[in-house]
Amino acid sequence: MTSSPCYCTALKAASRRLAALYDEALKPVGVNIAQFSLLRRVRRAETVTLTELGRLAELDRSTIGRNVRVLERMGLVALSRGEDQREAVVRLTPAGHQALVDGDPLWDGVQDAIDARLGPTGVLELFTTLRDF
Amino acid sequence: MTSSPCYCTALKAASRRLAALYDEALKPVGVNIAQFSLLRRVRRAETVTLTELGRLAELDRSTIGRNVRVLERMGLVALSRGEDQREAVVRLTPAGHQALVDGDPLWDGVQDAIDARLGPTGVLELFTTLRDF
DNA sequence: AACCATTGCGGGCATATACCCGCGATATGA
DNA sequence: TCATATCGCGGGTATATGCCCGCAATGGTT
C-alpha cells in the first residue's frame, strides 16, 4: 500500500535524530559526528589519500575532499602530496589527535547509552539489517 | 571500546545507500526520495503550512521552506498565504499529483524489494529499533 | 619515445539540513 | 486600546552530499 511508512524516510529521520545526539555530546570538542568519524578514520589509517578515505567512509570523493578541507581549516588535519603527485594525503595534526582524545569519552558515552537502550541482541539485529541495505 | 563501529555513522551510511536506491527508482519522475516523500506528505494533508510540514517530517522549518521552494520551481506544489497572513500554505499542483501517480508504483517497487529482503519480522524489528532513536 | 587510457583531484552546480536573526502578523494581558 | 509576548517566515551562513567536467599525473602499448 502506498500509505505505508517509507523505509528510507524513517531511516533518514532516525539518522538525523541520532546524529543530533552525537553532535550534542561532541559540542565541547567543537566538531560534529561526521567530522569526528572522519577524524577517527584518519587516525586509524595514519596517512590516507582522499580517494581511499572516500572508499572507507562510503562517501563520494568530492564530498570527502570538501569535508577534509573544513577539518584542515580547523587545524585538525594536514594535507600534503603523496609520492604519486596526484594524490592528496591526509594526516592528523597534534590538535586533531587532541580532539580525538577529548572526544573519545564523549563518543563512548553516547555509544554506551545506545547499547543500554537496545541491548546486545538489538544492536546485533540492527547492524545485520543495515548491512543488507 | 573506541574502535567499535559508530552507530551513527553506520546508520548514516545505510541511509545514504537506501536513499540512492529510491532515487534511482524515482529517476523517471525527476524527483529524489526526499522530494517524493515531501510530496506524499502534502498529498496526505491536502493543504498544510510550512511549520506543520516541518513538524510532520521532523525537519527544521527553514529546511522545509527551502525544499518546498525547489518543488515550487519544479511546478509540483503551489504556495499561498493562509487566513493567518503569516502562514505559507502548500498545496499540490496537477503536475504534483501526476508526479505522485507516476512515482507511486516505482516507490512501491522499492518498498516491496526491501520487504522481501527483510521479511515481516525484520521490518518490524527495524522500525521498533529506529523509533527508539 | 609517443600516444592513449586511467587515475586522483579541484571546482562548478544543485539539493539537503540546521541554526540564528530580524520582520511582520497575531494573540494576550493590563 | 495599547504594549508585549509569541508565532510563522525569509534570508544569511555553514556543513554535508552527489554528479559532472576538466586538468594534471601515471601507466601501459606500440
UniProtKB/TrEMBL annotation, chains A, B:
It comes from the Bacteria. The keyword GTP-binding does not apply. Residues 4-133 form the HTH marR-type domain. InterPro entries: HTH_MarR-typ, MarR/SlyA-like, WH-like_DNA-bd_sf, WH_DNA-bd_sf. The keyword DNA-binding applies. One of its GO terms (molecular function) is DNA binding. Pfam families: MarR_2. Keywords: DNA-binding. This is Winged helix DNA-binding protein.
